[in-house]
Design a protein that fits this description.
This protein folds into three domains: 109 residues, Helix Hairpins, CATH 1.10.287; 49 residues, SH3 type barrels; 81 residues, Alpha-Beta Plaits, CATH 3.30.70.100. Helix content is 58%, strand content 17%. Helix 1 packs antiparallel against helix 2 and helix 6 crosses helix 7. The longest helix is centred in the N-terminal third of the chain and has 55 residues. It is rod-shaped, with a radius of gyration of 40 Å. Keywords: Cell inner membrane, Cell membrane, Ion channel, Ion transport, Membrane, Transmembrane, Transmembrane helix, Transport. It is a multi-pass membrane protein.
């Protein structure tokens, strides 16, 4: 029994000695790792703030994009700190980096559609084909931009509906921005009768444009005959307004010109077909005479 007790005591003393040696050996590593974690956490937050402020100093740089890059810098810094801490304990970081790379590739493949929207969102925020409050139109989407996010863009349709469009659908198609340019041209096309006075029609259209204060003086109002159609002579008028005045001006201009045409006896004909009755009677008579002579 005494021998067994002595063996236990010796084994315990050996284990304690080995633990003490390990504690002494890794004490500096543990302290260094803790210092690295504290300093790394502080530096990552500091670098994130610096990145955010530096990007905001760039004229026209978006707030959302600035925060995104600031977060990228922070988490990349924390990842480097984590790998450095593991290296303090003798862990082979090369295998860890390779595993992280493989995991990142797998996640990227799994979230391919989401990453595509993020990439498109970054390009939209950098190049700014449209901004919040502007009215845009694509092949299938029309509305006023409410918010541009990293994943999707929020719009409000002309009839007041909410629409969420993935950024990839907005980046890969042509975009028409109706609000970007300060002025817009409106083209008014009206068909009048062939018996009506074309010069009078053009003068009436120019006078109505000149009397509207929302119509710009430069470029000048321009009227012309664009087509001799089957049932009407098509008279055109070009005038320019501010982008905000485009829709109300165009609707009121159409109405006022129509009323002026009615007051001045200028007709707006509908499609019609003219039959020449005398010619038809002559043809029928000739055919009947030919049949009688044949008999």
């Amino acid at each position: 029994m005494e021998e067994q007790a002595n063996e236990v005591i010796v084994a315990t003393q050996a284990a304690l000695a080995q633990a003490s040696a390990l504690a002494v050996e890794y004490a500096f590593s543990i302290v260094g790792a803790l210092l690295l974690l504290v300093v790394g956490w502080w530096l990552s937050a500091l670098l994130s703030r610096w990145t955010h402020r530096a990007l905001l100093r760039i004229r026209g740089f978006d707030e959302t994009l600035s925060r995104f890059f600031a977060n990228v810098v922070r988490y990349a810094s924390l990842l480097m700190v984590f790998v450095t801490v593991l290296a303090q304990f003798g862990v082979q970081t090369a295998s860890i980096i390779a595993a992280l790379g493989a995991a990142g590739l797998a996640i990227g493949l799994a979230l391919q559609g989401t990453l595509q929207n993020i990439a498109a969102g970054i390009m939209l925020l950098v190049l700014r084909p449209f901004r919040v409050g502007e009215y845009i139109e694509t092949g299938s989407i029309t509305g006023i931009v409410q918010e541009i996010g990293l994943f999707a863009t929020e719009l409000k349709t002309p009839d007041g509906l909410y629409r969420l469009a993935p950024n990839s659908t907005l980046w890969n198609v042509p975009i028409t921005n109706f609000s970007r340019e300060p002025t817009r041209r409106f083209e008014l096309k009206i068909g009048i009768g062939y018996d009506d006075d074309v010069d009078l029609a053009e003068r009436i259209m120019r006078e109505h444009a000149a009397n509207d204060p929302r119509v710009l003086d430069t470029p000048e109002v321009f009227t012309f005959v664009s087509e001799l159609a089957d049932s009407a002579v098509v008279v055109n008028m070009w005038y320019w307004t501010k982008a905000a005045d485009f829709w109300p001006t165009s609707r009121e201009m159409i109405k006022s010109v129509k009323k002026a045409f009615d007051e001045n006896g200028i007709s707006i004909p509908f499609p019609q077909v003219t039959y020449h009755g005398q010619a038809m009677i002559s043809v029928a008579a000739n055919e009947a005479a030919a049949r009688i002579s044949a008999e």
